[in-house]
Amino acid sequence: MIPPSFIQDLLNRVDIVDVVGRYVQLKKGGANFMGLCPFHNEKSPSFTVSPTKQFYHCFGCGAHGTAIGFLIEYSGLGFVDAVKDLAQNVGMVVPESDDKIPPAQRAALQAQSMALSDAMRIACDFYRQNLRSAPQAITYLQGRGLTGEIAAKFGLGYVADNWDSLRAVFPDYEAMALVECGLVIDRTDEEGNNRKRYDRFRDRIMFPIRNAKGQVIGFGGRVLGQGEPKYLNSPETPLFQKGNELYGLFEARQAIREAGYVLVTEGYMDVVALAQLGFPQAVATLGTACTATHVHKLLRQTDHVIFSFDGDNAGRRAARRALDACLPHATDNKIIKFLFLPKEHDPDSYVREFGHEAFEQQVRDAMPLSQFLLNEVSGESDLSTHEGRARVQFDAKPLIQAMPPSSLRLQIVRGLAQLTQSAPTEIESLFELSKPVARARIAPPRSNRPAPVGLERQIIRLMVAHPSLATELDESALAAIAHFAPDRAEMLTQLITASQAMGAQANFAALAEHLREGGTEFETLIAEIAAESESEIETARMELAGAIRQTKMKILKSELEQLAATGLGSDEARNRYREIMLQQDALRRQAEAEAANS
């Protein structure tokens, strides 16, 4: 876990305008910067970046967050990777509490990673340069209908049919980094002697594979001619694990947001050709089955994923593996579909033969996950027999058990129950489903906490906007806050504790990032504050003092009414009554003095 103090320090050093400005064209507009929102399609800029709050907010779609949140949403990075990326840019090293690697060893690993990244970048530039003087490769790409613009967008290159082409750009061709990143191969005899080094890729169209930050981490090479294998991938390396990466995702991010969905295909050429033909929202798995990591990455980019597979047996098997990977992520707010083209077509050939609109219709008509699942488990069984229906349930059980409790799971359970002449409750009981949905009469509320109102909301809101004020609260203020309803007091205690831990340098961006990690309870307030202009700290300090004073007055008034109801029959009660009157008077004078000085 990364310490909160590091996150705070990082956000104090990073300038969110610079971070967002790498991806969005920003123009100064008053105190803030404006641009077209990268998270939804718009023609007039409603996306603002505040250098004072160190926060971004879109008035169109409501997206908002810190520099860390922007990288997570825009690049699809995980929280830790986003923090590491920002830290690297400002010369900070991310501490990890569970990191047992000695500093010297970690430094060596970082140096190795940089050496591998540099090697891949140099090789990519070399391959791209080669393509310009390779007429046979250019002819092949033109024959596939690709333009120079698309080739440049995806960084396509070519490597000649030589054993050591890379000697031309790597003076130290014997460097171990070239083996470790998969660019060359060392071959030795049975005794481990007479080592001979040669290039892994020869006479191939080169497709660079980029990570979420746009760095080249691997290659796919398509052979020219009839050689085998037709496509050759980089091996697994410290930079590249094919079960974690998707080809074209870096290039497709903006198009995915604009289209509202991502199209997952089976190969490099599908992705590049579809981009040429008007479907730039396509990505591909890298010669491996779709994994849960792939699905997780895709759902960070969009809530709508469509898998496109050939209609042959191999395509069906690939679709089934994708289904298995998707089930843990199949919730009510996600749409996952499966598109099966005729056996003789891949996406590229289908669009070229039938046109853009025909393929769009295929996308719209793609099979929903629920239907595909039921088809898979029932396809080969005789539903007219008890044995056939039992077999369907047997095959469906592990699939439905992999799904989270949701309305979608309930719909599939109902569909399965209808197929197998059962009741939904019987299916849920037989499958031992966690949190059965069919038995629930009323869905549980999203939260048992009503939204804060009145003074409570005002105090919480001021503390979120200006967390440094938490360090100024005295014991009487904390005591007043403790009189709030238990849920409200708990919220404020959480807020004050987090803010005080950050110290006098606490700011809105750092606190918002901390609260985001803890859940969505403060999300509405954060969105409101992000959308408003920056408030002055002195004004906020006076408003907070006034709200706490009113809270104290309410507490004293309530106690006064309780004492009066007893008849003030004891000396203790009468003395307390006088004390409260004096405290109320002091609070009124304090309010008058502050009003006179304002």
Automatic annotation (TrEMBL):
Named cofactor requirement(s): Zn(2+)
Gene Ontology MF, one: zinc ion binding
Keywords noted in UniProt: Coiled coil, DNA replication, DNA-binding, DNA-directed RNA polymerase, Magnesium, Metal-binding, Nucleotidyltransferase, Primosome, Transcription, Transferase, Zinc, Zinc-finger
EC number: 2.7.7.101
Chain coiled-coil ranges: 530-590
Cofactor note (record): Binds 1 zinc ion per monomer.
Gene Ontology biological-process annotations: DNA replication, synthesis of primer
InterPro entries: DNA_helicase_N/primase_C, DNA_primase_core_N_sf, DNA_primase_DnaB-bd, DNA_primase_DnaG, DNA_primase_DnaG_DnaB-bd_dom, DNA_primase_Znf_CHC2, DnaG_bac, DNAG_N
Top-level EC class as recorded in UniProt: transferase
Catalyzed reactions: ssDNA + n NTP = ssDNA/pppN(pN)n-1 hybrid + (n-1) diphosphate
Signal peptide: none
Origin superkingdom: Bacteria
CDD domains in the cross-refs: TOPRIM_DnaG_primases
Listed GO CC annotations: cytoplasm; DNA-directed RNA polymerase complex; primosome complex
Known partners and oligomeric status: Monomer. Interacts with DnaB.
Function: RNA polymerase that catalyzes the synthesis of short RNA molecules used as primers for DNA polymerase during DNA replication.
Domain-level remarks: Contains an N-terminal zinc-binding domain, a central core domain that contains the primase activity, and a C-terminal DnaB-binding domain.
Name of the protein in its database record: DNA primase
